[in-house]
Design goal:
Blueprint (H helix, E strand, L loop, with lengths): L17 E5 L7 H10 L4 E5 L6 H4 L1 H11 L4
Length: 74
């Protein structure tokens, strides 16, 4: 992921996009997370505190809450 190049085309604004990130991810540094957010300014961004690199395992309730809210299920 860190060496991947950004997509050349933009995602249409009508396509909902959710970025989930964790404040203590040891594999994706804060500057890379910031670059991803700036590349997708139309995206909703949710930060899961303390989720590490696997928030679906470390913080499953927070992870599921974020996705459910994004999908309009919560």
């Amino acid at each position: 992921v860190q060496r991947a190049l950004p997509l050349e085309h933009q995602i249409p604004p009508a396509v909902p996009l959710l970025l989930l990130e964790c404040d203590n991810d040891p594999l994706i540094p804060a500057p890379v997370r910031a670059a991803i957010r700036s590349h997708y300014p139309q995206a909703e961004c949710v930060q899961i505190h303390g989720g590490g690199h696997y928030p679906f395992l470390v913080k499953p309730d927070d992870y599921n809450q974020a996705i459910g809210a994004f999908l309009g299920l919560r």
